[in-house]
Every structure is written in structure tokens, then in C-alpha cells.
């Protein structure tokens, strides 16, 4: 059966930005997990350094769900975590390789990058729950509002997704930290990500 005239071109146009968005989505996840081992002071507000770029992943996740659908978004989320697993596997493997006699930074490597597996593990659990909740809420709100009120839909889904993400990530990644400090990290991480989404949403 012959394809309908113009169908192939329309499909190509529809998906022409998918690879770019998926690549940026994956990149933000990998980078944020590597730098998240450092807790930074942002004018008296304490956040892991992954927050420099991580909130972008939620915006990209919203774009994927809105434009390409929940099913496509799920595939890309799983692909992104496979990339994260590969990254942490290589980091751990490199750490186990015998160091050259003149290279004296093995302890520094282990102290910083050696924590990446725990960060990625925490990120996997937190992001999986948070992003799937975000995508599910966004998809349902899109149906309920008949595609209207984009700002309300993205903010509403972020409130839910980021709450789950922040609680799970901070609790797992920084287990052993004092409870008061964990509460501060959870609250400020959630507030920062939601504020970022509010500012970035058109």
C-alpha cells in the first residue's frame, strides 16, 4: 500500500528536534549526577551543585511529554538512565585501575568521583518516581484542560514531581547527614527547582 502523499515529510518535521531534546535531557542528567557530590552555598541556601543544570531536565521532560507524548517520554527517560549507568560504571572501573606510580591523586578521585554511584543510585530512584509522576500528572492535566493552560499544567506537575524527587534524592544521596540538615536540603532543593520552572515557563 502506498503511503499517503506528504505523510513521511510531516513525520520527519514532527520529530526533527527529538534527538536534540533527548540528547540534552540525557546530558543534563549525567552532568548533574557527577557534580551533585558537592554541596554549595548559594547566599546562605544550601543545594547540591547538580541543581545548576538538573532543573533543565524537568523542563525538557515537559517538552517531551507535551510534544511527543507520554510513551515517547518514558522511552527517553529509560535511555537516559542507561547512559547514567554506563557513566557510573566507567567511573567505578577507572577508579579500580592501578594508578601510575607518579600519579598521586587516587585518594582525591575516590573521595569525589567514588561517591558517584550513590548519587546515581539516589537519582535513579528519585528521578524515576519524580519524572514519571511529573509526566503522568502533566498528561492527565492536558486531557482535563483540553490542551489549555500550559503554565498551570507544567507548574502543577512540577510541584508533585519535584516534591517526590527532592525527598527521595536527598534522603538517599546524603544519608548519614543530620536530620535538620536533610530537612533544609529537601526544602531548599524543592523550592529552587519549582522556582526555576516558574521562571522558565512561558
Question: Could you explain the architecture of this structure?
Answer:
The chain is mainly α and 202 residues long. It has one domain. 74% of the residues lie in helices and 4% in strands. The protein is built from eight helices and two strands, in the order ααββαααααα. It has helices at residues 7-14, 18-35, 54-68, 70-96, 106-112, 116-144, 150-173, 179-200; strands spanning 39-42, 45-48. It has a two-stranded antiparallel ribbon with strand order 1-2. A hairpin with a 2-residue loop joins strand 1 (39-42) and strand 2 (45-48). Helix 2 (18-35) packs antiparallel against helix 3, helix 2 crosses helix 4 and helix 3 (54-68) packs antiparallel against helix 4 (70-96). The radius of gyration is 19 Å and the shape is globular.
Summarize the structure.
The protein is mainly alpha-helical. The protein has 8 helices and 2 strands.
CA radius of gyration: 19 Å
Q: How would you classify the quaternary structure?
A: single chain
Helix content percent band: over 70%
* Overall 3D shape: globular
The proportion of residues in beta strands is under 5%
Q: What tags apply to this protein structure?
A:
single chain; 202 residues; mainly alpha; two-stranded antiparallel sheet; 8 helices; 2 strands; 4% strand; disordered N terminus
SSE map:
Blueprint: H1 7-14, H2 18-35, E1 39-42, E2 45-48, H3 54-68, H4 70-96, H5 106-112, H6 116-144, H7 150-173, H8 179-200
Antiparallel strand pairs: 1-2
